[in-house]
Amino acid sequence: MIRQLREDIACVFDRDPAARNTFEVMTTYPGVHAILHYRIANWLWCRGFKWLSRFLSAASRWFTGIEIHPGATIGQRFFIDHGMGVVIGETAEIGDDCTLYHGVTLGGTSWNKGKRHPTLMNGVVVGAGAKVLGPIVVGENARIGSNAVVTKEVPSGATVVGIPGRIVRLAEGSGEMSDGARKMAEKLGFDAYGITDGMPDPIARSIHHMFDHMHAVDNKIDAMCDSMREAGLRTCDDALPELEREEFVSLEDLEKERKNESVSASK
Question: What is the model's pTM?
Answer without folding.
Answer: 0.60
